[in-house]
Write a structure and sequence with these properties.
This protein has helices at 2-9, 20-23, 33-50, 52-57, 62-76, 80-255, 257-291, 306-311, 313-320, 338-356, 374-384, 404-416, 429-432, 443-455, 477-481, 494-510, 525-533, 543-554, 565-570, 577-587, 593-608, 624-654, and strands at 300-301, 364-367, 388-393, 422-427, 463-469, 485-488, 517-518, 615-616, 619-622. It has 677 residues and is mostly helical. Helix 12 (404-416) links the parallel strand 3 and strand 4.
Length: 677
């Protein structure tokens, strides 16, 4: 008992932890102060165990003495039993605490072991994965090396084969070259032998002929002498006989006066007949050509010729049966700016009155962008004034070169034979009447210009000249002096474009041979357009009829476009078409009449080319989306053409020797009415 008490009691004392402290397990690292004491005890116990040998050799009895003294004092103490019991309980408590700490340490050690095992497993798994990846990479690298080695081997084999083939080809070529050289040498040798043989043969034959001629020379000379003597005798006898016969005939002829007079009369009558026949044939041909023919420069004319009647009899009859002239119909169907329209009406009235009163005609210059109605107005002016018209292009004179002067004189001779009066329309007048100081004006064109100025120098009661040009600034001063009125044809404004759209829609869509139906409505196109555009800008209900007359003259069987127009316009429009028409009018800024006509014809083509699903009851249908798409396409094309024009202007301006005058090309053919000219 004393040993246990002192052993447990002295465990905390310095140097006394050998028994109690040495048997307790080491605390966990997370334990507080008790762990420190235990650790201290372990260190002390460990130290006692390690110094056992030294204690055995150097024993110190002072410790025993102190223990004995403490025991005696304890025995004398009356509370010794209670102290012992308290010491025993403390020892038991410490043992229980040490057991709990040992169990906790063991659990912690197991947990560390589990963590070590898990970590070792994870490390092993990673090692295996890395090893697998390394093995895979190694295999891939080995496979790559194998493939590259195979490719290298194949490349080497192919290179070797190619080298062998190349060597074989070179050997073959050398062999062929040697054979060819041998064949050539053989052929040359054979040719040389043949030539030598032929030369020897020719020399032998020549020497033989020379020897034969030398031997036969005397005989040949005697033979030639005899032949010449015989021929001379024959000729002398023939001349003597002929001379005697002619002399006797002339003597008898001159002796008879009646025979001489009859011969002279016969020869004179024959010469006169031949000359008269030639002159009459020429005059008759010129008369027929002037009256019934058509000059080669004329592209189009309202005068009938025998050729036109024979080729197009129905068209000729229809033109003869056309309506009577009237100045009030000159601008029917032509959409123009109000000021220009009033000027043209005055010119039409003056032209009609000049024909009525046999007054000289006035020459007119129409200038403006292409497609603004110049040609159409000229035709209408001629028809409304009762005149015949003829159209030719100034560019047609240049290809004739020196014959251009004769062609112009024939043209004016033909124009002066008109009984009704002729309106001569010169399209692209600047090509013919360009100023003579221009470097581009050749000698032949100057001569043609002089001929034109000579024939138009004085006012005429037989014909009037209407010039059309996109570049009036290039006209010669003398040609400008022959112009009496100048009219500018500008691009149409918004109201005028609205009127044009209305006429073209009526002509090409609703009144076409195969009418076009608008999607979502049973209305005619011009009715919906009338509400959307909101204006007709000076057009009349007879515009479509006048256009139909032009179409009839241009093509047999053309349908009239004006019938029923008023009823169509009276129908109220609905749907999205009014907005479409308004958009068309707004986005066609800068369009000419011809371009407006092409736009509507594009709608017609889109409707005719649609799928069967877009056809209702056999009638093609035009959708609003299609109309807008065609409008955008035409707008894009116009921008592209303008870009081309700008590029051409810049190129011409940058060209060396450029005169700096650049204008638009193309004629002034009108396209501002229901039927483009």
């Amino acid at each position: 008992m004393w040993r246990s008490v002192f052993g447990g009691g002295d465990g905390d004392a310095p140097g006394g932890g050998g028994g109690g402290g040495g048997g307790a397990p080491p605390p966990a690292p997370a334990t507080g102060g008790g762990g420190g004491s235990s650790g201290s005890g372990r260190r002390s116990g460990g130290g006692g165990g390690s110094s056992a040998a030294s204690a055995a050799t150097s024993f110190d009895p002072t410790g025993l003495e102190r223990a004995a003294k403490a025991a005696r004092e304890l025995e004398r103490n009356p509370n010794a039993g209670a102290v012992l019991n308290l010491a025993r309980e403390q020892e038991l408590a410490k043992q229980a605490e040490q057991s709990a700490k040992r169990a906790e340490y063991e659990a912690y050690a197991k947990q560390l072991e589990l963590q070590r095992v898990e970590k070792a497993g994870e490390e092993q798994r990673r090692t295996m994965e890395k090893q697998a990846e390394l093995n895979q990479s190694t295999e891939l690298y080995r496979d790559k090396l194998t493939r590259e080695r195979g490719k290298d081997d194949l490349r080497m084999r192919l290179g070797a084969e190619q080298q062998l083939k190349e060597q074989q080809r070179q050997k073959d070529e050398e062999s062929v070259a040697r054979q060819e050289a041998m064949r050539r040498k053989t052929a040359e040798y054979e040719t040389a032998l043949r030539q030598q043989a032929e030369i020897a043969k020719a020399r032998a034959e020549a020497e033989g002929r020379i020897e034969q001629q030398r031997r036969n020379h005397d005989l040949d000379m005697e033979k030639s002498r005899m032949e010449l003597t015989e021929k001379r005798k024959t000729v002398l006898e023939t001349v003597s006989t002929a001379t005697s016969s002619i002399g006797s005939g002339l003597s008898s002829f001159f002796a008879d006066e009646k025979k001489m007079a009859g011969f002279v009369v016969t020869v004179g009558a024959a010469a006169l007949g031949i000359y008269t026949a030639r002159t009459a044939t020429t005059v008759t041909g010129n008369y027929i050509a002037a009256r019934l023919g058509k000059p080669s420069l004329i592209r189009e004319t309202s005068r009938l010729s025998l050729g036109d009647v024979s080729r197009h009899p129905l068209r000729s009859l229809r033109r003869l049966a056309s309506r009577a002239p009237g100045a009030q119909t000159a601008l029917d169907g032509v959409v123009l700016e109000p000021h220009t329209e009033s000027r043209l009406r005055a010119i039409a009235s003056a032209t009609a009155n000049a024909r009525t009163y046999n007054a000289p005609y006035r020459n007119v210059l129409l200038h403006g962008p292409p497609g603004t109605g110049k040609t159409l107005f000229a035709k209408r002016l001629a028809r409304s004034s009762g005149l015949e018209y003829a159209i030719f292009t100034g560019g047609d004179v240049a290809p004739l070169a020196a014959d251009g002067v004769s062609a112009l004189h024939k043209l004016f001779d033909w124009a002066e034979t008109s009984r009704k009066g002729l309106l001569l329309f010169i399209d692209e007048a600047d090509a013919l009447l360009r100023t003579r100081s221009s470097a581009a004006q050749g000698e032949h064109m100057r001569n043609a210009l002089n001929a034109f100025l000579f024939r138009t120098g004085a006012p005429s009661e037989r014909f009037m000249v209407v010039y059309a040009s996109n570049r009036p600034q290039e006209l010669d001063d003398a040609a400008n002096d022959r112009i009496d009125d100048i009219v500018t044809f500008a691009l149409p404004s918004a109201p005028e474009r609205a009127a044009m759209i209305q006429q073209y829609v009526r002509l090409y869509l609703t009144r076409a041979r195969v009418p076009v139906q608008l999607e979502g409505t049973t209305l005619s196109a011009e009715a919906t357009m009338a509400t959307g555009a909101g204006t007709t800008a000076g057009t009349t209900t007879g515009a479509a009829a006048a256009a139909a007359a032009d179409a009839t003259a241009a093509e047999p069987g053309a349908a009239a476009a004006g019938s029923g127009a008023a009823d169509d316009v009276a129908v109220e429009a609905r749907g999205e078409w009014p907005a479409v028409w308004a958009r068309v009018v707004a986005e066609t800024e800068g369009f000419s009449g011809r371009e407006m006509a092409k736009l509507v014809i594009g709608w017609q083509a889109a409707a005719y080319g649609a799928q069967r699903s877009a056809v209702t009851a056999g009638r093609p249908m035009l959708t609003a989306a299609t109309a807008v798409s065609v409008l955008q396409a035409h707008h894009t094309q116009k921008q592209l053409k303008e870009a081309w024009h700008d590029q051409r202007e810049r190129a011409e301006a940058a060209a060396p020797g450029s005169s700096g005058v650049v204008g638009t090309s193309g004629g002034g053919g009108g396209a501002v009415a229901a039927q483009p000219a």
